[in-house]
# Entry
Amino acid sequence: MLNNLKKTTIFKKTRVARGPGSKGKTAGRGHKGQNSRSGGGVPILFEGGQSSFVLRTPKRGFKNYNRINFEVLNVGTLNKIDLNEEFNKESLTKLGKIKGNKPLKILGQGELNKKIIIKADAFSKSAEDKIKSAGGSISIV
# Structure
């Protein structure tokens, strides 16, 4: 029954600033200073008066104006095209594989099992190896 339960120790909540019987006087805030006053303290991101980190960081991102955006094409795609063995930017544009308004880069994804000759602006190392191992040749425009 509830009236037969043994009484356990119950700790009362500490009452601060209610006289010398508890944490009276300074109420655990120490003596003087900004944090001892009511309404005292600093905001959570306050850095002692210097410009805050949020204000010091750039706000609208970073744009790398030196970046070259390539149109990419994989060697697996070149393997599927039924064209003579010579590829260049103009022939791939006519086929609709690229738009032709950016530099062309050939990447090495996919398999290549025919001999091709290709002219492009850049090649990845794996694409270069696959084209040469199939007996083809590359030339950088």
User: Anything to note?
Assistant: DSSP finds four helices and six strands in the chain. The mean pLDDT is 89. The CA atoms of residues 62 and 79 lie 38 Å apart. Residues 69-103 form one domain.
